[in-house]
Design goal:
Arc Repressor Mutant, subunit A, three-stranded mixed sheet, alpha+beta, 9 strands, 2 domains, 25% strand
């Protein structure tokens, strides 16, 4: 990701999707950890100034233990975040605006005390808080997942989980919709199932408190041979991950 701008204007969940799209899961997890940290007890999310930077003090040893990453890997992730920006569009006061913002304007590692201080814009902190409204266990789920497809699936399941309690926690998708959601280009449902759904389910079953089952929907009108697959229905299920 170093040195380039990620265009996330058309992505519905910009903060998380930016890293998933570029498959930089380490930087994603480091920023997710930063999002959990306290800035200052006197500062609330409502009082953050968009263009002002805020210091977030961290412990290198705590990050390393929590993320299961060595300090050199964390240092490299901070360096990438420092040289990367994101841009997104939004409507403010009836005006269409596009914002360009650096992920981490500054960072400082003190190897003597094993501390890490980062400075981050108020506007980005708002974006982070707005897209990481998860409990401790759910946040830990994201950090433990091992592939971008698993993270995309967990994001998808979170959306399904927000459906009304009066509605079934399930959603049907076409192959075109699935490829768009997961950033893939598979030409058949079977290939998508083999390379995305099966690995994602295995990962979620181990690390997440929610997972899924799926069925392939077949065309009711059978012409010749086997019925054509026309979609996949994903059902959310509550899970008891083996690591908890």
């Amino acid at each position: 990701m170093g040195g380039k701008t990620i265009n996330i204007a058309q992505i519905s969940n910009p903060f998380l999707e930016a890293f998933v799209k570029n498959n930089d899961l380490v930087s994603f997890k480091v920023l997710l950890y930063i999002a959990k940290a306290k800035i200052d007890e006197t500062v609330t999310i409502e009082k953050l100034e968009d263009k002002q930077t805020y210091k977030v003090p961290l412990s290198l040893l705590n990050i390393s233990k929590y993320l299961k990453l060595d300090i050199r890997t964390i240092r490299n992730a901070i360096s990438r975040l420092n040289s990367t920006s994101i841009n997104y569009r939004r409507t403010v006061g009836g005006k269409d605006k596009e914002t360009f913002i650096s992920l981490l304007p500054a960072g400082e590692i003190n190897y003597t005390d094993d501390t890490l201080d980062v400075w981050i814009f108020g506007e980005l902190l708002k974006q982070i808080y707005a897209t990481t409204k998860y409990s401790y266990v759910q946040t830990k789920n994201f950090i433990d997942l091992t592939s971008k497809h698993s993270i995309r699936m967990l994001l998808l399941l979170e959306r399904i989980n927000n459906f009304s309690d009066d509605a079934a926690k399930r959603k049907r998708y076409t192959l075109e919709e699935l490829n768009k959601l997961f950033g893939t280009k598979y030409t058949s449902y079977s290939l998508f199932e083999k390379y995305v759904l099966f690995p994602a389910k295995k990962d979620l079953d181990i690390h997440s408190n929610i997972s899924f089952v799926h069925i392939k929907n077949k065309d009711k009108v059978k012409t010749r041979g086997r019925a054509r697959i026309v979609g996949i229905t994903i059902d959310l299920i509550k899970n008891q991950p083996s690591l908890f």
